[in-house]
Design a protein that fits this description.
Elements (H helix, E strand, L loop, with lengths): L5 E3 L2 H6 L2 E7 L5 E10 L4 E10 L2 E6 L3 E5 L5 E8 L2 E8 L5 E3 L10 E3 L5 E7 L5 E7 L4 E3 L8 E7 L5 E7 L11 E6 L5 E4 L3 E9 L5 E10 L11 E6 L5 E2 L10 E6 L2 E8 L2 E7 L5 E3 L6 E7 L6 E6 L6 E4 L2 E2 L10 E2 L2 E8 L5 E8 L9 E7 L21 H7 L2 E6 L8 H4 L8 H16 L3 E11 L1 H12 L5 E5 L5 H7 L3 H8 L7 H7 L12 E6 L8 H12 L4 E6 L9 H20 L4
Parallel strand pairs: 1-30, 33-34, 33-35, 35-36, 36-37, 37-38
Antiparallel strand pairs: 2-3, 3-4, 4-5, 6-7, 7-8, 8-9, 10-11, 11-12, 12-13, 14-15, 15-16, 16-17, 18-19, 19-20, 20-21, 22-23, 23-24, 24-25, 26-27, 27-28, 28-29, 31-32, 32-34
């Protein structure tokens, strides 16, 4: 134990750790920028600003601002800033420091990109129906609507050739959450004004990039036809489309559905993917050859590359650290200095076998001075998704509800299982919870708890479970389906799949996992719903839920509360006004964390065995 360090990081300090995102590097490679989000406790708000670095040294801050992007000449920084009428586009000269507002669009702009020729920018903005249309903006700040697509099409993403002559669009029929999976590709020739729809019978992903010469595009596409995914879990793979010949190639098709194309450069396509608990980036050649930037453990949150492929900036977190900015392989920030004076948990990836003999991974957080000769109280933290995962690094951007460091300080250890359905372990594993939600997840988690008990690490009578969203659903299921857990905390979780199907903003997601509607297959909905097992419930449960959650509506919380209450189970319900999945107010997250800390401490540590 290092006695020079003070206590574990507090809940307030944990929520005060900056969240880094939106990294961008200039074409010359000398300038980079990223967004830093911090908690302003006096205003009870999260504030974003842009941190600018030049030749590895911090040179400026742009306050407020987000989504920065360097001009082709590398001396101007475009960014977005929230105004009373929505997010607007600004530009700041790095030489003069002059800041100019470029747009004043009702409803704000959604996304933008520089014209690669340096003539101006393109941006999307909503119509009165909410559909995003494309506009061009020249250096004289004259904006014009491009007659690219029909009125009823909603642009999700776009990219341009280096000469600005071709624009590729990914667009859906509407702005709703359930419209994205119906997206189509369109190609605009700026010189002729001709728009061509690129026929694709499979489901398209959320990003698209174009080769510098405008002859090829790269995007993600499903393995099967679109209609197949009405009742099956979506998957995706990279596809490269030759616009001249119409030929399509699927490099790396044998791996799982975490690929994201970032930018097509002269050296290849910068892509990002998840490899178990690591987030990696690399350059993909059109022939399928992939050159990873490195093989060390860590998670790359985002990356930006120059058009010639010679300069790269990325945000990366190594195990047990918070993310840092790296430019051309050199670390240029010191965000982890915030943790250097504190004790922090030691996170390591462990494995165990589930009842089917499959290997399951998880992240185990323990104190650096854990007493190895006695069994510890354990808290299981279940990640959401389910197509997501837990990772062994420090970041509140992945967990702003459960104070892992405070749990460690109290004497708990924490297990975060990457149960079936998690990403990074192949498509078969990601789809292994199809029509098996709840029971399959429970088996993976319980086998992890059993493994730690068998090793003598965990006291079987001092185990709690918690999670938000899909993690909340699994927590509700496991704590009701078995009597193994001494206490539970259900955050934003589904308690009844029929209720959720009728009220969620994304009913297609329910269909893809359960395989049919509740009217056609009520049995699978009952089998997967925690409330249908409530008569056997005995676990004291804290229910936390955002009242404005559109994905998992609050009716789920009320139904679970009523069921547990009528069974005589100790239960508390905490609703957060105006909150959806997460809150814009750090004090709300602090309150959520403090409630969980008090709940588990009172029921496990203070009561004893």
């Amino acid at each position: 134990m290092n006695d020079t360090k003070s206590d574990y990081i507090s809940i307030k300090d944990l929520l005060s750790l900056p969240t880094l995102s939106d990294v961008t590097i200039s074409e010359c490679g000398q300038r980079s920028a990223f967004v830093k989000r911090t908690a302003d406790w006096e205003r009870d708000a999260y504030i974003t600003h842009i941190e600018v670095h030049e030749k590895g040294e911090k040179t400026a801050e742009v306050r407020p601002g987000f989504r920065p992007s360097w001009s082709p000449c590398s001396d101007q920084l475009a960014f977005m800033c929230t105004q009373p009428n929505g997010n607007q586009l600004f530009i700041q000269s790095m030489k003069e420091g002059k800041r100019v507002q470029l747009t004043d669009v009702e409803g704000g702009i959604a996304l933008y990109k520089w014209d690669p020729t340096g003539k101006g920018l393109y941006y999307t903005a909503p119509t009165h129906t909410g559909h995003h249309r494309l506009h061009s903006l020249d250096h004289e700040e004259r904006s014009s609507l491009l007659p690219v697509l029909e009125e009823g099409v909603h642009i999700l993403d776009f990219d341009l050739s280096l000469d600005g002559g071709r624009i590729i669009f990914l667009a859906s029929p509407g702005p709703g959450a359930d419209d994205a999976h119906k997206a189509e590709l369109y190609l605009l020739n700026r010189f002729t004004g001709v728009v061509k729809k690129i026929e694709e019978s499979r489901r398209l992903g959320g990003q698209v990039c174009m080769s510098p010469e405008g002859t090829h595009i790269c995007y993600t596409v499903s393995r099967e036809e679109k209609d197949y995914y009405r009742t099956h879990i979506p998957d995706s793979m990279l596809e490269i489309h030759d616009l001249t010949t119409g030929e399509r190639e699927q490099p790396l098709s044998e791996v799982d559905s975490t690929w994201i194309p970032i930018r097509w450069t002269e050296q290849g396509i910068l892509v990002k993917w998840q490899d178990r608990t690591n987030g990696r980036i690399g350059l993909l050649q059109p022939d399928g050859n992939l050159e990873p930037y490195n093989h060390e453990d860590g998670y790359t949150l985002g990356a930006s590359i120059s058009s010639d492929g010679h300069h790269l900036a990325c945000l990366k977190a190594h195990p047990n650290e918070t993310p840092e900015l790296y430019v051309d392989g050199v670390k240029v920030t010191d965000e982890n200095a915030l943790l250097s004076s504190k004790r922090i948990s030691r996170k390591k990836v462990i494995t165990w076998s589930n009842p089917n003999g499959e290997t399951i991974e998880g992240v185990l957080s323990i104190p650096e001075d854990m007493e190895r000769d006695r069994a510890q109280p354990l808290l299981v933290l279940v990640h959401g998704g389910p197509n997501w995962a837990s990772f062994p690094f420090q970041s509140t951007s992945f967990n702003d509800k459960y104070p892992v460091e405070s749990f460690i300080a109290k004497g708990f250890i924490v297990l975060e299982p990457n149960y079936r359905g998690s990403t990074g372990y192949g498509d078969a594993f990601m789809k292994a919870n199809a029509r098996n939600l709840g029971i399959g997840d429970h088996e993976d988690i319980m086998s992890g708890v059993d493994a730690l008990v068998e090793q003598g690490i965990v006291d079987p009578d001092e185990v709690g479970i918690m999670g938000w969203s899909q993690g909340g659903f699994i927590t509700a299921f496991s704590s009701i389906y078995s009597n193994r857990f001494k206490v539970a905390s259900v955050g934003g979780g589904i308690s009844n799949w029929v209720t959720n199907y009728k009220t969620t903003d994304l009913p297609s997601n329910v269909l893809s996992y359960l395989g049919d509607t509740p009217w056609n297959d009520p049995e699978i909905y009952a089998k997967s719903s925690p409330v249908w097992y409530v008569q056997s419930a005995c676990t004291p449960t804290l229910i936390q839920h955002g009242e404005a959650d559109a994905r998992v509506p609050v009716e789920n919380a009320h139904e679970l509360y009523k069921g547990l209450k009528e069974q005589g189970v100790e239960v508390e319900l905490e609703l957060f006004t105006g909150m959806g999945y997460s809150s814009d107010h750090p004090k709300v997250h602090k309150r959520i964390m403090e409630q969980n800390l008090e709940w588990f401490t009172r029921h496990i540590l203070k009561k004893g065995k």
